[in-house]
């Protein structure tokens, strides 16, 4: 399949801090591609470079055949972006924000009218379309931003944490629409998200980025297969290291991951569950809970990054990227 | 090319919508020059300027210039504002050149400056300024030109500033000297010789002089000379502003 984004050895440094470190990656045309990573892993910095807002320190990247530095105008021609941080004009009405966007992207007035009706309807803001954005709640603003990103049906759409703070129903709505767009227009969608289930359900492929590097890349099912057998999660605060050491020795345990809230153990069929239980029930470990399940993306994430994906507090490197890049 | 033009128009239109929604901006921008005019002209009513022009009449074009100076220079803060509220990203990521973004903003700001000036101009009738239609039609482009120079300067400064505080600091550093050395309050030939060179690099000095030539018929330089100098200033500041926007990544 043809690739639409080619990233080679891409690096971005802010002084001593390396936000993206020699990252190489290619994203295929028409793909729904997920970038996952713990807070501050460099996802937003990567996206900012791809949409020409930040210049890489070294390495190269092309989007739709155009180089992000030397042909940035061409790149901007073919992309749409929904930023993580708000970027609406509060004094304008919802519709005026969309109109502005359409005009900036060279749409004619007829198209603008039709398309803004469509997208307003999609995010259920039709009735509020004449209201100034400053009267909108956080969720409404978020929806409007997504609507705006869809206005001009770009070749590649970047979504940086698009559904954060939205209720389940709206989120489902939006994903459905995005999938439809992807089918219909062969649109390539690159997103970062904290919602693992969404990533699992919608993404064709997923890249996990941790500490500014690409850790693993694959389809959700391949990634899950990389964790053999089932997963046992043990929640505890005390003696995680000791507990992990003991569990490692149990037959059939393929690996043990320590993360913030406890330990995740992957067990294959032949493993001795009884022995695990025995270790876990030792008093000194003060185990709060144990659960076992088939591997999820969450487990993949813990396995490769040692961190659990936080759903509630997205810290962004967006502010950092913005400050360093745009003065 | 057409696309760039549409982008410029979109940005220009946005600035005008924003202006129309900020009533307080419109009010204060009229109230403060009026206050200047009333207080100064009554305080100094005993003075007459050279050719027997009443001080109040002499002062009016100066205060008109001041209106434009304050509102236009301050317009540069909109860049800082757009950055703080994230809207700048929306424009920077659009397939429009940085230079067009600059022109959209500059034209928006100058149109607003011209509107502010025009409102104030009509109040001039109360201060013995004879307004005729050809007169006004000639004054409008001059107002626009002055505004364009100062807005471009403001945008140049704004695109280098990260905070409102920083912007305001730099603004005060510019506004007062520009105002006092513009001839708005008194004829520039009353200045001590060592300050005179500063008036030559002050576009507002030529702007006020041009307004005076048109509105009360007395001026230091000829109208044509003033317009030429203003055009030169405009090319310079537009170039600087566009360059600053181009650097913005």
CATH class of the largest domain in chain A: Alpha Beta
Under CATH, the homologous superfamily of the largest domain in chain A reads: P-loop containing nucleotide triphosphate hydrolases
| Uncertain stretches of 5 or more adjacent residues of chain B | none
Q: Give the overall silhouette of chain A.
A: elongated
Alpha carbon gyration radius of chain B: 18 Å
Structural class of chain A: alpha/beta
Helix and strand run of chain A: EEEHEEHEHHHEHEHEEHEHEEHEHH
Distance between the termini of chain B: 22 Å
State the share of residues found in helices of chain A, binned by percent: 25-40%
Main β-sheet, spatial strand arrangement of chain B:
1-2
Mean pLDDT of chain B: 88
Largest sheet of chain B: 2 strands, antiparallel
Q: Which H/E pattern describes the elements of chain B?
A: HHEEHHHHHHHHH
Whole-number mean pLDDT of chain A: 85
- Beta-sheet strand percentage of chain A? 25-35%
Count of distinct strands of chain A: 14
Oligomer: heterodimer
Rg over CA atoms of chain A? 22 Å
Search tags:
heterodimer, A: 327 residues, alpha/beta, Rossmann fold, Alpha-Beta Plaits, 6-stranded mixed beta sheet, 4-stranded antiparallel beta sheet, 12 helices, 14 strands, disordered C terminus, B: 249 residues, mainly alpha, two-stranded antiparallel ribbon, 11 helices, globular
Give structural notes:
The complex is a heterodimer of chains A (327) and B (249). Chain A has 12 helices and 14 strands. Chain A has 327 residues and is α/β, with parallel strands linked by helices. Chain A has 2 domains: 3-219 and 314-325, P-loop containing nucleotide triphosphate hydrolases (Rossmann fold, 3-Layer(aba) Sandwich), CATH 3.40.50; 228-294, Alpha-Beta Plaits (2-Layer Sandwich), CATH 3.30.70.920. In chain A, strands 6-7-8-3-9-10 form a 6-stranded mixed beta sheet, with helices on both faces. In chain A, strands 2-1-4-5 form a 4-stranded antiparallel beta sheet. A 4-stranded antiparallel beta sheet of chain A has the order 12-13-11-14, with helices on both faces. In chain A, α3 (94-104) packs across α4 and α4 crosses α5 (138-150). Chain A starts with a strand and ends with a helix. The model of chain A is unreliable at 310-327 (pLDDT under 50). Chain B starts with a helix and ends with a helix. The A-B interface holds A 51-55, 73, 76-77, 79, 81, 83, 85-92, 96, 99-101, 103-106, 132, 148, 322-323, 325-327 and B 2-3, 6-7, 9-11, 13-14, 17-18, 21-22, 83, 85-97, 160, 162, 248-249.
């Amino acid at each position: 399949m043809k690739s639409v984004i080619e990233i080679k050895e891409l690096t971005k440094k802010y002084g001593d801090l390396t936000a993206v470190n020699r990252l190489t990656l290619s994203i295929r045309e028409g793909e729904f591609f997920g970038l996952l990573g713990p807070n501050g892993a460099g996802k937003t910095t990567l996206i900012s470079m791809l949409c020409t807002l930040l210049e890489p320190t070294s390495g190269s990247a092309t989007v739709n055949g155009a180089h992000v530095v030397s042909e940035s105008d061409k790149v901007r021609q073919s992309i749409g972006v929904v930023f993580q941080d708000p970027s609406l004009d509060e004094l304008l009405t919802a519709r005026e924000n969309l109109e502005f966007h359409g005009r900036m992207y060279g749409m004619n007035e007829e198209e603008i009218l039709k398309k803004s009706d469509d997208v307003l309807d999609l995010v259920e803001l039709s009735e509020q379309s004449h209201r100034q954005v400053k009267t909108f709640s956080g969720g409404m603003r978020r929806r409007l931003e997504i609507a705006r990103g869809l206005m001009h049906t770009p070749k590649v759409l970047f979504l940086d944490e698009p559904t954060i703070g939205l209720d389940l129903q709206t989120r489902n709505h939006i994903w459905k629409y995005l999938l439809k767009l992807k089918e219909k227009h062969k649109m390539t969608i690159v997103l970062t998200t904290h919602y693992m289930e969404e990533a699992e359900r919608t993404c064709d492929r997923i890249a996990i980025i941790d500490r500014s590097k690409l850790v693993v890349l694959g389809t959700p099912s391949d990634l899950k297969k990389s964790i053999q057998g089932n997963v046992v999660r043990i929640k505890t605060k005390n003696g995680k290291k000791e507990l992990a050491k003991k569990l490692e020795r149990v037959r059939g345990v393929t690996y043990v991951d320590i993360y913030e809230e406890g330990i995740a153990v992957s067990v294959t069929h032949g493993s001795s569950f009884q022995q695990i239980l025995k270790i876990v029930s030792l008093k000194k470990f003060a185990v709060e809970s144990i659960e076992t399940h088939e591997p999820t993306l969450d487990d993949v994430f813990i396995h490769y990054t040692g961190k659990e994906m936080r759903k509630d507090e997205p810290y962004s490197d967006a502010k950092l990227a913005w400050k360093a890049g745009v003065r | 090319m057409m696309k760039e033009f549409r982008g410029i128009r979109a940005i220009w239109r946005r600035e005008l919508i924003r202006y129309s929604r900020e009533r307080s901006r419109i009010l204060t921008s009229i109230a403060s020059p009026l206050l200047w005019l009333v207080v100064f002209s009554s305080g100094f009513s005993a003075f007459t300027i050279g050719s027997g022009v009443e001080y109040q009449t002499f002062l009016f074009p100066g205060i008109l210039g001041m209106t434009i100076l304050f509102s236009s220079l301050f317009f540069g803060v909109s860049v800082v504002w757009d950055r703080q509220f994230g809207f700048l990203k929306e424009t920077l990521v659009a397939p429009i050149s940085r230079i067009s973004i600059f022109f959209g903003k500059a034209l928006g700001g100058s149109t607003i400056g011209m509107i502010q000036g025009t409102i104030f101009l009509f109040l001039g009738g109360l201060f013995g300024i004879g307004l005729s239609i050809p007169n006004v039609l000639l004054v409008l482009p001059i107002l626009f030109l002055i505004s364009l120079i100062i807005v471009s300067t403001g945008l140049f400064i704004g695109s280098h500033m990260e905070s409102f505080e920083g912007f305001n600091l730099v603004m005060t550093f510019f506004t007062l000297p520009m105002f006092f050395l513009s001839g708005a309050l008194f004829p520039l030939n009353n200045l001590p010789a060592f300050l005179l060179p500063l008036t030559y690099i002050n576009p507002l000095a030529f702007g006020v002089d041009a307004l005076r030539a048109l509105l009360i018929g007395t001026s230091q330089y000829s109208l044509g000379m003033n317009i030429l100098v203003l055009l030169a200033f405009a090319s310079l500041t537009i170039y600087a502003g566009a360059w600053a926007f181009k650097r913005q990544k």
